[in-house]
Design brief:
single chain; 433 residues; mainly alpha; MetI-like fold; 2 domains; three-stranded antiparallel β-sheet; extended
Length: 433
């Protein structure tokens, strides 16, 4: 017995149902693929981030491991003249004390002492000079000094210089490596956290180089940048958004502000060189001129972020303020701007964080110079963290390269803290409409 024939209407309904189910199946498959692509994109981004951070940490964490030498030094009256204290060779005194501790003797030409000087930082010689200058009664006595070993000796202790390497291909010979092993065995050398990297400024000697001067320079420069870019940017944005008439002139200004936000940073460096240094004679390589240049660069971003925050405030706030008799100025500065402040502060902090990482405009105004001390003021010679990274990476000493990665870690900590501050400010003052 055959099945009854399906009516024409029933056939169309079944075909339509099948087509709908096919389209739903295709749509669900497309959504699954989209979610998969999204997860893959996030995974790739996180992989590159982990690779970048991992490479920086692996190269730079050894900077925070410090090897200090403690050595008693006899201040020989025959070699230190009370009438000419600075004329003595204090590095030689330290080297000979190290040789004596190792049970070695120097030759007539002082070759052994010269090789020891390549292992011991000249910071110990400066310490001895300072002690003798401060109290000449130590002449004829033994004083104990403590200071870092040379950068190459530190690299050997950290395992970055191998004894298996051919002697001619490394900076320290076999005799010097044997001395280093013996120093460690005798307890002359100890390891610990490298506090000096955070408390010292730049130096020509890698083991004495630190980031304090660059950190202070960055803070002073950001102080100038924030003091100029934030108030000027907020006031300009408030005028353009709330007070300025909508005509071709304001449209022209808005377009140019958006264009200035996309101008390459080195152009601002050229502008700062021409205007602030050559014309206004602002001191070169100072936090003041650096802050002025970065303020110009951050200003468009602050204006754009502030205008967006002002637009996010509901019109009902303005209407209510005006309805109870407030003036336009009172409405903006007593009601609208305070409610927009989370977005304003977030944009300002992020623009400052971006300015902190800029290098190109600062190179144009001379902040690439070697600055061994901490800047005393806004007009003192200074360097900043991005430029310090640039200087160390181009140094010939191998030990400076690990300090480059460590300085990047310090810079990243600064930027993470600033971004965290932006998030906390937004969450603390956020308003939902």
């Amino acid at each position: 017995m055959t099945d009854p024939a399906i009516p024409i209407a029933g056939r169309k309904s079944a075909a339509l149902r099948d087509a709908v189910q096919a389209r739903l199946k295709a749509r669900h498959a497309q959504e699954k693929r989209f979610r998969l692509y999204g997860r893959m994109a996030i995974l790739v981004a996180l992989s590159f981030l982990a690779l970048l951070l991992g490479r920086i940490v692996l190269q730079g964490y050894t900077t925070f491991i410090d090897y200090q030498m403690s050595i008693p030094v006899y201040v020989d009256p025959a070699k230190v003249d009370r009438a000419d204290i600075a004329g003595a060779n204090y590095d030689m005194l330290v080297a000979q004390a190290v040789l004596a501790k190792l049970g070695e003797k120097d030759d007539d030409l002082g070759e052994a002492s010269g090789k020891v000087m390549e292992l011991v930082s000249n910071d110990l010689g400066f310490q001895l000079l300072k002690q003798v200058r401060a109290d000449s009664s130590v002449i004829g006595k033994t004083v104990t000094l403590k200071g870092p070993v040379r950068a190459d000796a530190s690299l050997y202790y950290k395992g970055e210089m191998k004894r298996a390497t051919i002697e001619g291909d490394r900076k320290l010979d076999d005799r010097q490596l044997a001395w280093l092993d013996k120093m460690r065995k005798l307890g002359m050398v100890s390891s610990g956290f490298n506090v000096g990297f955070l408390t010292r400024s730049d130096s020509t000697e890698p083991e004495q180089a630190g980031v304090l001067g660059a950190v202070v320079g960055s803070m002073l420069m950001l102080l100038v940048t924030a003091g100029l870019a934030v108030p000027i940017g907020v006031l300009a944005a408030s005028y353009l958004e709330e007070f300025a008439p909508k005509n071709r002139w304001t449209d022209f200004i808005e377009v140019n502000i958006n264009n200035l936000a996309a101008v390459p940073s080195i152009v601002y460096g050229l502008l700062g060189l021409a205007v602030f240094i050559n014309w206004l004679a602002v001191p070169r390589s100072s936090p003041l001129v650096g802050g002025l240049v970065l303020a110009l660069m951050a200003l468009p971003t602050v204006i754009i972020a502030t205008r967006s925050a002002l637009r996010a405030v509901p019109p009902s706030i303005r209407e209510a303020a005006l309805g109870v008799g407030a003036s336009k100025t009172q409405t903006v500065f007593h009601h609208v701007l305070p409610l927009a402040m989370p977005g304003v502060m977030t944009g300002a902090i992020l623009s400052l964080a971006h300015a902190l990482g800029e290098t190109a405009p600062l190179l144009m105004i001379g902040m690439v110079s070697f600055v061994p001390g901490v800047p005393a003021g806004l007009t003192s010679a200074a360097t900043v963290l991005p430029v310090q990274v640039f200087i160390w990476e181009n140094a010939s000493e191998r030990a400076f390269h690990e300090r480059t990665a460590a300085a990047i870690m310090v810079l990243l900590v600064f930027m993470i803290l600033m971004n965290l501050a932006a998030i906390l400010v937004r969450r603390r003052f956020e308003r939902r409409w």
